[in-house]
Structure formats: C-alpha cells, structure tokens
Amino acid sequence: MSPNARVRMGGAFPAMLISAVLLAAAAPWPAGAGAAPAAPWQATGWGGGGFFWSCAFHPTKEGVIYMGGDVGGAYKTEDGGKHWRFINRGLADYAVYALATSKSQPDTLFAGTVSGLCKSTDAGEHWTFLEATAKGKLDITMARRASVRPIAVDPTDPKVVYAGSRHGRLYKSQDGGRTWHKLDYLQAFADQPRPTPPAAFRGKGCLALTYSSEAGDWNRNGRIERFLAEADWTGRKKMTARVLVPAGAPKLQAQLVVQSGAGWLWQQSQWVDGRQGEWTEVSLDLTGLKHLDAVQVVYVVIRSPEAAYRGPVYVDAVAVHTEADSAVAGGEAPVPQGVDLLGDWEKVGDADGWRANRKIKDALFVTEARQSGDLTLREKGAIAAVAVAEKDPKRVFVASSAYGLLRSTDGGSTWTQLATPRSAACVAVAPSDADTVYAAFGQEGIRRSTDGGTTWAAASTGIKQGCVVREVAIHPTTPSTVYCIGSMGWEGHFYLSTDGGHTWEESRTVRRDFEADPTIPDDYGGRAKGTCPVSAPANLVVSPCNPRHLFIAANWRPCFSPDGGRTWEERDRGCDITCVTDIRFHGGNTYVTAMDEGLLVSPDRGATWRQLTPLKYDTALSGHQWRVWVGSAAGATRIVATNSLWEKPFNQVLLSSDGGKTFRATRRGLPAQRPTVNTMWGQGYPRGLAVDPKDPQTLYLGIDGDAVPSRGQTGGGVFKSTDGGESWTQLPNQPASRRCFYGLAVDPTDSRRLYWGACGNGGGLYRSDDAGASWHHVFRNEAWIFNLAVSPSGVVYCPGANLWRSTDHGATWRKLTAFTDQQVTVGLAIDPRDEKRLWISRVTWGTAAVGGVYRTKDGGATWTDVTADLPYCKPTILRFDPATGELWAGGVGLFKLKQ
After folding, report:
1. Average of pLDDT values for 18-32?
2. Looking at the domain 666-898, which fold is it?
3. 711-759 per-position pLDDT tens digit
4. Which of 386, 387, 465, 703 stands the most exposed, by the fewest C-beta atoms within 10 Å?
5. Closest CA to 825 of 839, 811, 814, 812
6. CATH top-level class for 199-366?
7. 625: which strand partners?
C-alpha cells in the first residue's frame, strides 16, 4: 500500500471530508416512518485491504480473537481468524484503535475509539458507550498510530481499569468504567528543574520544545514538520528559520528540508551550528529546488552531533521570502517578511490528526502537539500503553510518547520516572514474572528490565537498523520468549527472541489467502508467489490458551501464526474494511469500485470476488477508484472507471473493451493535475460519472475544484466524452459551483438534460438543457447536495439534509422527509420497476456510528427504517438490483438485503 493512500488521505473514507456543519447527531424519523421487521443484512464483501489497528485474544476461549479497524469498527472470529464477522451492535464509533480484555471476567472487553471508550460484557456481541469518556467530557479518546495499547484491566479485579488518552491524560476506574478519576503521573517530575524560555519569547507564541537525543541522532523529538496542500510558493527565493539553544548546551545543529513533487523529493540546506544562548538563522536557497509548485512538507531538523542532549530548543520565524537577501538578524530581530510557516502554535496541534493553520486557510498543518511559549509541566503527547503486572497488580507501567516510561507500585497513587528514552511506544510486563519488563521506543529499539523497571539494558541486537519498533509481547509462561513488531514506512517487521531479547530472529513473510482477500493477486513484493511481507503491523497478541498462536493486526493483511511466530498466514475472511465508492450490475455480475483496492467483480452476487484492476502495485494504476459504468458494446462487456493515483497528482479514466481482461488508462483532455481550490477533500477527484442511456459513447465526468488561472490550473467541473471515454473535453461553461461529490446525472428521457449537485457556497442543484452548454441554478433550498438521481420517467431526486423531489425538471420541489438532525442523505436508489419505491441512507461524516437506511413504497409519503442489523449503519452507496430484488449498500463494507 502506498504512503499516499488511505493514511495520507486522512485514514478513512468518510472521515476525510472537511465540513464543520456536518456533526454527529441521533438519527431522527422521517414523517410517517415506522419500524420494519428486522430483516437480516448479508455481508457480501471480501476481507482485508484496509488498516486494522488493534487486536486481542479471548483470555479463556481458544480461537476467539477480536480486531478493530480504522473505519469499519470491530470484528470477531471464533476459529483463529479463518472466518470473521462484524460485532458493532452499540459501538459508538467505527474507528477502533485499542482493545483490551479482562482476565478475571473473560467476556468483558473494552474498545478505545476516537469518540471514547465502549464496553462489552458478552464477548463483543453488544457494546455500551461509556458516556463519561466522551469528547467534551473526560475525552478518553484514542489516536491513530499513537495509541498502541492504552487500556489495561487489572487481571485480578475486572472493576479496575486504566486508560490513557491521546492528550496524555491517564485515568483509572474502580467500577468497571462507569466513573473515572485522573491519575497524576506528572508528580514524578515535581523535583526536576524546569527551564524558562528567554524573556523575548514569553507570550509570543514561539515553538518551545523539549529536545532529547543521543549523540548524532535526530528523531521525532527533534523534528518539526509542516504539511502543505495549496500554499503558493510562486516567486519565493528563500526559506528561513531561527533556532535558539540555551547557554551551556552541547553543540546543536539545524537544517531546513523541503519535500516536493509526487515523489516527495528530499531537498535540504547545509547544517548550521547553533550559537548557544543566541538566535541562529538557518536558510535554504529555493531558487535551485525542484517541484516548488507541489511542496508536500517542510521540516526544521535539529541534531546533537557530539553529545547527548535533553533540554529546551526554541524555533521561530519559519518563513519563505520573495527576496533572496531577506536576512534575519540575531537577538530581538522581528519576524522576517514573507509567508509565515510557523503560525499560531498555541492553537495548533494535538497528537491525533491535523489542525489547519489559520494564516493560510486549509493549507498548513502540524502533525504533533508541542508546547508553546513556555515549558510549564503539563500533560502532553499520548499515553501509548498501560501495563499491569499480573503477579503484582498494584504495579502499573505507563508508556508516554512525551515522558517515556513511568511506574507506580501502589495502583497509580504515586509515580516514578524510569531511566529510559523520553518517547516510549509500548511497555509489557511478563505475565509469569512481575520483575521482567520490556519496552519499545520506536527507532531507539527495545529495552529490557529484570528488576521491575529500576534498571534497563538495550535489547535490540538483530533488529534491523531504522525499524521503528511499535509493540512488544511476552510469552505467557516463559519470560525469556518475547516478540516485537515494527516498520520502516509500509515495510513491516516481526521479530522473535528466545533469550530475553539478547538476540532477535526475523520472520515477516505472510502466505496469502486469495479467496478471502482477492486484491492485487500478482503482487508478491519480491517473494515467492502467493506470499507477501507483513505491512505496517499495529498490534501483536499472544494467545493465553495456546502460546504458539500469535496474531498481528496490520495494514491490508492481518495475519496469524500457528507456530510461535516462525510462519505467518493471512487470516481476514469476512473482515471487510473496504471503502466502497460504487456498485453496478451487468450480465449477472456485480462490479464494485473502492478506495485503495480498485475494481472487483463477483459472478455469484457476492459469494466470491475477483480483482479486475490493478492486479499488482502499479504507479500508473494503483490508487483510488471512484465510479464505474458497465455496459455492452459490439457483443462484449465494456467497462469505464474513474481513478486517482497514489503516486501521481492527476486523475484518469480506465477503459476495458473485453469485460475487464485488460485495461488502458486515458487522461486526454483531463487536467494535468488535481484541483486544490474549493474541493471536498483538499484535492479534486473524479467522483461524478454519468452515461447517456441512449448513447453509451457519450459520457460525462465530474471533478470537484475551481480553476486558478494564475497558477495555470483549469480546475474541475464537468467533462464530456463522445468516444466512449477515450478523450475528454472540459465544457466551456460550468455550473457556478464546481464543488461536487457524487451529484452528476443524465435525464433518461432527454439526453441533453444534465443535472449537477454542488456543495457549500453556491451549492444546490444545477440543470443544463443543452448538454452542458449552459447551466441554471434550479434548487437553492439546501447548499450541500452530495448525490442525485433521475428516475426512468425523468423525476429528479435531490438529497441534502432532507430528500426533495421535482416532477418538472427542477421548476418546483416537494420535500419528502422531515429530518431535523445534522445528518445528510447521500445514498439513493430507485426501483426501476416501481418508481414509488426508493431507498435513502442517512450518514454523518467521520467515524461516529450514527446513520440509517430508509425505504418508501409510496413515493415518499411514508418511510420505514430498514437499517436493522446493518453492521455499518451509514452507507454512502445504495444500488437496487431488479434482477434479484436485492438492495446493496456500500460505504465501509458491502452488504445486501432482500427487498
């Protein structure tokens, strides 16, 4: 999976849309709605293909494993991973980054999500949201990547639970999660002197960070980074920053780095020696740099080349300038003129997610929380892991991304800082020996203690240099047998040690299961066909019932080991985490497009699936596919699909004239790069596709985003093809708003009549009566129109906060629902045999588990809730197959319901 795939897009399909007006709320009932008998939805998708972040074995039932994903919720298997099913009943959020079980109450399970904690007392079959942990209250929420194993249950008392938040706060519950109190682990630092920033910095919003490094190192504690989306670097000649290190510190050096272009080319300045106690300017000449029209990220990098250092470093005046000689003096010099890349650091950042810099709206972002203005002791970073010693439950260890390891010997009342690196990823205590403790520290490897954490020794021999170690797990009865996982980018690693971490043996080849996960069948990463390396592992567990059984939650292919980690096999059948973007039926086949995974086909209505494209990782094909049309031409099945690439900044169309045996890509007439202004997700994507039902050679393509003539960007909007998609022409006249989602359709009763749904400023519905030559704004009642549909008789349905219908091509409208919540209607399907029968889906953007599917049989006069047991309750795609009488729902996962 490419580094520019789902993670770069924001981690999840519905979570990427930036719209403050769409907030999670309880689903209301439309006018006249009634409850339908609970009809069973059938899961019809495939497994794998996404990111699984958490996992846990049942403490007493062999073969029972739980897993959590970033967008699909929670899953359960009872046969060691051979078959999975969703367990989302009552789950408050579909982003499950942490799981923890109770040894003394084996069916009790906790899930850590981005909305708070959920608890199950029946082995995951039903969940209860722990309201006290919600955002706006205690905010015990999890962070992608940072929350490794932040929940722990006392192994002897199921009422005692510890949980760490993404904000660095640590809590304890003594009543099974109903109430919580905060633990003050910062007392461990009370006697340590705190540095004070220079007077010139106080209250001025500089970036003040605690820097920690071994000699010659620079790491996440010494790297400040800004991601850029659309900042204009035209004419910029120079980038500068000011760095100050306190008097008495060892020699520190700083440099500036720009990564730009589709390949993220690394371009750096020379190292500059910092003057102790004075401001030092670092500069980078931009005139010779490549791809400044596509700057991806800026770094200020600090290193300590001669001696280890832990202490404050101050950074200010990170800016780009139009003049190459815009020097910055030392001391109290003002911030240089130019575009400020530092921004208001007091308001940006937290350990999870991204926060926009308001000085360049929606353009600059910070990836981690930093203190600003002073170094006052406060909770920061994230609580990455909590571990309770099974043989001494009062002994609790905490791994903090900001403060390293801490230990309590009295159940969290008092704390001691341990002598380890300052940023810890995970800590584990041997179940059979409370004195044996292992901890992971990212690139700094693993440390081992045999005296309960008082002293530590390095334990990383054999682990590949540069591997970022994420988690350590220990054999339940043999403390000298220990396992760890880590990664280098997407390249995953598993290691086994049988001598207490003195040496490590690597095992990272996974035997694939193509029936369970048919994606990229020809890609085997340089290994034997039918195998692949483990990718970006996130959680590692050892079965308490059978210690030879291990499981890894990972990117794309979670895997199981039957022999103590020496061999691995993919196990994700039924573990559907696919982000579905379209569903179509033709010739008895079902076709599905998805983000990341491509285009797949099922000949048996979802029982089995086969990948059509891409068959292996290919920079010319791999990325997201958005829409698909399938039809017949010259006796063959013709396929048209839209595609945006991971590694290249443009959109394209994929064409097949032989039923998907071969594909060719075309960009003729499409923009040379993706639009970035007035888009839904930061860049414009080809989410609109409509085919003239009377002439399948005539197609229309919709891409969101405005033109920016000053940058030579023609923007998105509506594009037309008259040769079956081989070439495209951007219509000379466009709707007043080009910010679209799925809203593009051709009226089947009149091929010259087109409809375009737009969002935000100027949003609503636009109609063209002349094949796109001119446009009229025919619906203004709502401004966020994510989809639209035209029935076979020409009736137009316009879904927004409510569903609207027009029987006169948009001249007049009737509201068919009476929702008053903050959800929106996105999925929309019409029964072509009976136009009075249609279905809608209500969704919230983000991962909160709020939404529903509704059906009307009388043209919208009354509605019935048919959500029932749908595992993912807010699908964005609804399609009705009249040949089988089945309603298909896709969003995260793929499901069908007999209607």
Report:
1. 32
2. Methylamine Dehydrogenase; Chain H (2.130.10)
3. 888 999 999 999 999 999 999 999 999 999 999 999 999 999 999 999 9
4. 465
5. 839
6. mainly beta
7. 643
